[in-house]
Amino acid sequence: MPEGPPNSADTPSSSGDFVVSAEHRFSMADMDDRSLREAIAAVSVSASDEKLTQVHVTDASGQHHALMRMNHPVRIQVDGPLGDYAFAFCAEADIRMTGSVGNGVAEGLINGAVRIRGDAGVGAGAAMTGGTLAIYGTAGDRCAAAMRGGGVFVRGNVGDQCGVGAIGGMIVIGGDAGERVGDAMSNVTVFIRGKVKSMAAGVVEAPLRKREQLRLGLLLINASIRGDAKEFRRIVPEAMLLAEEASRREVNPNWR
Amino acid sequence: MTPATPTDRLEPLIWLPPSIATGATAAPVQTGATTLARTDGTKITLDIPLFWYDPPWHHAEPKLADVVAKTVAQLGVVVTALGRDLAAIGDKSTFHQTNYAGGSNSDSATACVLRRLPRTVPYRPERYGLYDSDFDDAMIIDVRLVVNRDDDGRFAFAPEQIARWEATPDGSPIAEGARIPSSNFPPDVPAIEKLTSKLQQLRILSPTAAVFVSMSPYRLDQELPTVLKQNPDGVILRADDNRISGLMLAAMTRRARQWMKHERVADMPLWIVPGEISADDAAKLVALGASGVAIDHWCDPIINQATDATDHSSAARLGYKSIRSSQEAVLVDLVHYHLDDAMVRFKGLSDAMSSLPSEERIGTFDAAWSKALGVRQVSFGVQP
């Protein structure tokens, strides 16, 4: 994995929207994971779509398999760190965590959001089908592997084989990427700001069009990541680019 | 007419009757049921040690595949299927929702306890088509450390399979309709030595299921001990992608069981995917130490013939193609046509051998088989 930049998780854009005063507080020191999930599931849902019911989970200390299959429309703030497979197969919830996580964070995420103010291990967002995973630190190898939908945003660097086997969704990398970006990737766009060690066979760098700049800009705002969309480049499967050009009947500007 | 009888790959192994001194006259009443245990102690009842490992569900429409899955599972066979294999988006397959009181072998104590049909969730490295609801009420979660081959032998998934799983529109298939490459290791596990955490995660996601690991047998001595150290609830050896000899199949089963004894998990379930197999072969593999045997060779033709069978049924010829009950009846008959004889034979042999000590069940006239497998050689004094 490439060297990551300093963790910039404390930038105003990424921290300003975290829970300030929670309506419900639970301590992981006092409850096992099952009890915690049941307690959160029992929290009443806010009548307003604008302001979710706020839940604050404290005393996490690296537990594995925490808060998986949460399917409840509340905002959960977790004071980390957590271990492997945290928030796997979650839906509806808006989860925000301070501290690092282990491997496979937000595996199979269905919808909702998971925002990590720290670093993530290997396979972050693996096989997710929807929702948003935002990592404000760095992510390990095979980030967004086999992703089927949704969006993964990493403010820092990612390791090797980012997006391996992904067949849907979008990946945004604020830092650098390791070897073989986009290995066996289909129908997925990678936006990257930094350097790429190597790209996998079958993926190419493509121009970032005005429309994509606007789209990326909105996505960056949505993920609470500061940055100008113009600084990013686009990496896509070659077949996808050819199909895109064919459908628009466009000529590659380099050929003119 | 009966289905084509496969060659007996383990023909050199013979069934031994009980010795005179034992006084055995008949097998005691057998249920045929066995119990699996998760590492956390949860018990799982298996009616018959047969399973359908990798059904080609995409070869038939979801509603036909659903009926086939349900009918096969009602015979006690553990059937592998994702929800998306058998139902369109937003629907639930009847296979996933049907309760039953156990297979025909269930004893009276368990016969009245309704439970879900025996189902394996294939947890492939890519997880295409997998949804969280697949974990509910599953019997086995199969963590596949084997690379998927498509119908042409490539390490890939067929476009039809991906389209079924991901519900992509016909006009805009993923990867423009090309094959999607497959891999052989979960991308969110850093190394095989770290697999324990993934297995434990799956036990939490599916509290009713035993978590097995599928692997290929070709590097057994290097890989199986490492896999066993990760504490799976069982191991599946997938040996159907090459046509290996009967002796090698038997030796592989023996060797894997020896490794389990060596690693102090002698009773861990060991399921074998042998490829083409007869009922006698399946029973002999159990005698050699297998706890489950895949019968894809018996079952795959059912799904491959399902569309034709329903198209040519009497109701279909009269234009009543949409009548579900008539289609279902045709498919139920098709399942029984393909499975009944073989399963009756398998159950008969299994019942018979269960009354004998394990080392007295099979023998061979062949010196090489005897030496390789450590089974009794019957020679009648003839020197090879």
Write a structural description.
The complex is a heterodimer of chains A (256) and B (384). Chain A is α/β, with parallel strands linked by helices. Chain A has helices at 12-15, 33-41, 210-222, 238-248, and strands spanning 24-27, 54-58, 75-79, 94-98, 113-117, 132-135, 148-154, 168-173, 189-192, 203-206, 233-237. In chain A, strands 1-2-3-4-5-6-7-8-9-11-10 form an 11-stranded mixed β-sheet. Mean pLDDT of chain A is 88; it is low at 1-17. Chain B is an alpha/beta fold. Chain B is built from 12 helices and 17 strands. Chain B has helices spanning 62-74, 83-86, 94-97, 159-166, 195-205, 220-228, 246-262, 279-287, 296-311, 314-317, 324-353, 367-373, and strands spanning 13-15, 34-37, 43-46, 50-52, 78-80, 99-100, 115-116, 119-123, 140-144, 156-157, 180-181, 210-215, 234-238, 270-273, 292-294, 362-364, 376-377. In chain B, the strands form 5 sheets. An 8-stranded parallel β-barrel of chain B has the order 4-5-8-9-12-13-14-15, surrounded by 6 helices. In chain B, strands 1-16-17 form a 3-stranded mixed β-sheet, with helices on one face. In chain B, β16, α12 and β17 form a beta-alpha-beta unit. In chain B, α1 (62-74) crosses α9. The mean pLDDT of chain B is 89. The chains are: A alpha/beta (256), B alpha/beta (384). The A-B interface holds A 33, 64-65, 68-69, 83-85, 88-89, 91, 102-104, 107-108, 110, 121-124, 126-127, 129, 140-142, 145-146, 148, 161, 164-165, 167-168, 184, 186-187, 237, 239-240, 243 and B 125-128, 130-132, 162, 166, 174-176, 178, 180-181, 183, 186-190, 194, 197-198, 200-201, 204-205.
